[in-house]
Structures are given as structure tokens and as C-alpha cells.
Give the backbone structure.
Amino acid sequence: MPLSDPETDTRLMRLALQEAAKAADAGEVPVGAVIVRKGQLIGRAHNQVELLKDPTAHAEILALTQAATACGDWRLTDTTLYVTKEPCPMCAGAIVLGRVARLVFGVTDPLRGGAISLFPICRSPNLNHQPEIVTGVLEEECRDLLQSFFRSRRQDARDT
């Protein structure tokens, strides 16, 4: 099990927020993710659904793919995934299948969340793995980035 502390979680969530800002700058929903293993960054991504025209190009999926490549194994048992927003059901399923040890996220998504909120996939006793979950890391910053992005999109829609 990867070891962590609040200071490390905060520092790494800041990296995920940097990725989320890249997504926002590109017109993507601002979600960013980073994955670490034994203190090493092995995956880093942001949403690229629009850029790649791929519904699976979520930050978590892209970061998981990078991490698996870096490890040379799809089993990510000794990793921690940091993501700015609670994963959707697709991403939560990939986290469970990849056996990520810890999932740390900033803000929950009560309308679409797939880890613990609407669909508690990461807590399902019917699945072969449940990651340790830490929520609320840099929650205000994560929420502010998402809200300002969607506020701007609504304003742009009104202006056209």
C-alpha cells in the first residue's frame, strides 16, 4: 500500500490541478489526473475528449494507460491516483480493474460520480478490489475551476 500524508496529497493534487487547467485552456472539461508509484510520477493527463474525438479520453484513463506502460504491467497495486473530480463510472471501473491502491480526489460529483456518490463502484463488495479513498483534497480549488469553466461556457452561449 502506498504511503502518503496530507502534505504529499496536497502537493500532488496541485499537479492534477495544473493538468485540469490545461484541459480548461483547451476547451475541455477541466479534469486532471496524476499517478504516483513509490514517490515517482508515472502518469499525468487531462481530459482530451474533444481533441481526440474519443469518449474514453478522460484524464484518469489516459493517466492509467501511461502508468501501466511505465510499470510494464496493468496491475497498479502500489499506486495512488490523484484526480481533481470524482471519477465517472467508466473511470471508476478502470481504477478497480487496474487495482489502484489509493484514489485521492478533490470534489465529489453527486450527479454523475462513479466512485462513491451516485454509483459507488469503488466501494462495491461485489468487485475484486476496493481502493482506499481520500476525498476533499484541495476541494475548493477543484470546485472553483470546474464552476468557472462551466460559468464561462454558459456566458459564451448567451453571447452568441
Summary: The beta strands are 32-37, 40-46, 79-85, 102-107, 132-135. The radius of gyration is 15 Å. The chain has a mean pLDDT of 96.
